[in-house]
Amino acid sequence: MSDAIAILGSLSLGTNINDCMDAADVNDDGQVDISDAVRLLGHLYLGSETPPDPFGACGEDTTEDELECSAYSACP
Ligand SMILES: [Ca+2]
Ligand SMILES: [Ca+2]
Q1: Which ligand is nearest to the CA of 27?
Q2: Where along the chain do its domains lie?
Q3: Angle at 75 (CA atoms; ends 11, 28), nearest 5 degrees
Q4: What is the band of 68 on the pLDDT scale with cuts at 50, 70, 90?
Q5: How far does the centroid of ligand 2 lie from the alpha carbon of residue 69, in Å?
Q6: 72 CA → ligand 1 middle, Å
């Protein structure tokens, strides 16, 4: 849930998510917006479809998009 809160905080308050915007692209559409928080919360609390890989694991997003990922502290 903290990830969804971080996404919403970034969108509404401009807080910094991290150095890996691609990690916030939960639905993997190449943008970070409210649909990413909704997708994450839907999966966590309503049992909706699991977000695309590498959701729940450390790894690269193999989908080409404009989002950067210079580092992700949750992954060693
Ligand atoms: Ca997205
Ligand atoms: Ca992506």
Answers
A1: 1
A2: 1-76
A3: 45
A4: confident
A5: 10
A6: 17
> What ligand has the least distance to the C-alpha of 31?
1
Q: Each residue of 36-58: pLDDT tens digit?
A: 999 999 999 999 999 999 998 88
pLDDT, tens digit (0-9, with 9 covering 90-100), for 2-11: 889 989 998 9
The amino acid occupying position 4 is A
Sign of the C-alpha dihedral, residues 29, 33, 26, 18?
A: positive
CA of 25 to the centre of ligand 1 (A): 4
The mean pLDDT of the chain is: 90
- The residue whose two tokens read 């890989």 is 53
> How far away, in angstroms, is 40 Cα from ligand 2 center?
14
Q: Phi and psi (nearest 5°) for 31? A: -135, 155
Q: What is the model's pLDDT at position 40? A: 96
How many angstroms separate the alpha carbon of residue 45 from the centre of ligand 2?
22
